[in-house]
Amino acid sequence: MDLDPVVTNADHYRVVLENARVRVLAYDDLPGDRTTPHVHPDSVMITRSAFSRRLTGSQGDRDVVLPEGAVVWLPAQEHTGENTGTTPTRVLLVELKGDPPAPSPGTALGPV
Questions:
Q1: Contact 87, 53 (CB under 8 A)
Q2: What is the average per-residue pLDDT within 84-89?
Q3: Alpha carbon of 5 to those of 11, 13, 46, 106, 107: distances in Å?
Q4: CB-based contact 7:36 (threshold 8 Å)
């Protein structure tokens, strides 16, 4: 079974950038929305709105409340989620891929 959130919950997740090192997902939902089971690799989450969510996984339930503009580490995990608040959830997830290469001479500085 494919537990990629872009496949399992295509109404909420979309790919906004992907290359050999990262995949960046945008996630949006409304109060009361729920996701089906899906998997995230190690990721960095950036909140674009304040929100309240309940995550459910093999470890049990966890209520999460984050402010707009938070940047947090999300270790690899499988879960479902529910927007338990009164505001939409809006986040960016930067999913990490593989081991980082060593910097090489001549690498461009800044964004590419």
A1: no
A2: 97
A3: 10, 6, 17, 36, 33
A4: no
